[in-house]
């Protein structure tokens, strides 16, 4: 990971610590903090000096260089988000933040698995822990980072909810917990407790040590390997399961505003993207042309 480069003693830089404190105060997730440090570090590396000495011309040259290096639009926009936070919140230079250009681009439609493909993928997992983790991603529509940071105590079997703490944007929310998922998690609890890796105050999906959670990178690897074993040709990652969760709910007639709450989306526009990939919903609509019955011919009577 690229750290925030400050020429003198970068690792203990007061500027870096201030940025971390600002992000922590706003309850940014660990992953978001890592990304912001990396992206502010890009600017520091480009300048060869502390990023708080940037000028408007420096930022212009930096963004041009990033584009010429072939960075995609989503990556460049993510860098803009990190730098805007740094300039506005950490060093109080909103004038510089306004010089950063966010690029427009048409969002691509997400890959979605069919219910049968999800069934095959889950069936191709190699152990109960992997099955339970991927089942939470699909069955509750959680992000990989949210699956990784679940604790045993976040499973609320009384209210049939999963408590998601500090999700994207630092927001807490409740996710759905189905009866089948609860049964699977109970099975995993028995097995994990027997192995000595699950504790009531610990992580629901520990990593190599019971004291640390599984990494998002490992979750990604689990999904990719399961998809390969299930012979699913689509490009599949952990977020594919979340996309599939939302799309399947929409196809089953669940109100899109309910799906928005379950996913933890701040804006309905983000959730509305799934309407474009809900093929069963599209097929269920009767075309106005069909209602005209122009091309319906009565079959000739026999004999």
UniProtKB/TrEMBL annotation:
InterPro entries linked: CB, DNA_brk_join_enz, Integrase-like_cat_sf, Integrase_catalytic, Integrase_recombinase_N, Integrase_SAM-like_N, Tyrosine_recombinase_XerCD
Tyr recombinase domain boundaries: 108-287
Record's keyword annotation contains Flavoprotein: no
Domain Core-binding (CB): 10-91
Keyword DNA-binding: yes
Biological processes per GO annotation: DNA integration; DNA recombination
GO molecular function, one term: DNA binding
Top-level taxonomic group: Bacteria
Keywords, in A-Z order: DNA integration, DNA recombination, DNA-binding
Family: Belongs to the 'phage' integrase family.
Protein known as: Tyrosine-type recombinase/integrase
Origin species: Aurantimonas aggregata
């Amino acid at each position: 990971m690229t750290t925030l480069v400050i020429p003198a003693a970068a690792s203990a830089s007061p500027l870096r610590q201030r940025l971390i404190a600002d992000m922590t105060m706003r309850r940014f997730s660990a992953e978001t903090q890592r990304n912001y440090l990396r992206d502010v570090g890009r600017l520091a590396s480009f300048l060869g000096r502390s990023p708080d000495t940037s000028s408007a011309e420096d930022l212009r040259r930096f963004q041009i260089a990033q584009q010429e290096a072939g960075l995609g639009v989503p990556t460049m926009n993510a860098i803009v988000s990190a730098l805007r936070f740094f300039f506005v919140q950490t060093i109080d230079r909103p004038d510089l933040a306004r010089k950063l250009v966010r690029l427009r681009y048409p969002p691509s439609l997400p890959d979605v698995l069919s219910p049968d493909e999800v069934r095959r993928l889950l069936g191709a997992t190699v152990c109960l822990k992997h099955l339970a983790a991927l089942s939470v991603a699909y069955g509750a529509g959680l992000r990989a980072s949210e699956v990784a940071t679940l604790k045993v105590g976040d499973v609320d079997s009384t209210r049939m909810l999963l408590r998601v703490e500090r999700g994207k944007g630092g927001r807490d929310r409740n996710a759905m917990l189905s009866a089948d998922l609860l049964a699977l998690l109970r099975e995993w609890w028995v097995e994990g407790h027997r192995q000595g890796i699950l504790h009531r105050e610990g992580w629901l999906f520990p990593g190599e040590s019971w004291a640390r959670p599984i990494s998002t990178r490992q979750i990604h690897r689990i999904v990719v390997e399961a998809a390969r074993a299930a012979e699913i040709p689509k490009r599949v990652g952990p977020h594919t399961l979340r996309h599939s969760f939302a799309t399947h709910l929409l196809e089953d007639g669940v109100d899109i505003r309910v799906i928005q709450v379950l996913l933890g989306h701040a804006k309905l526009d983000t959730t509305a993207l799934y309407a474009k990939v809900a093929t069963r919903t599209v097929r269920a609509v009767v075309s106005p042309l069909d209602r005209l019955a122009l091309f319906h011919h009565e079959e000739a009577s026999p004999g």
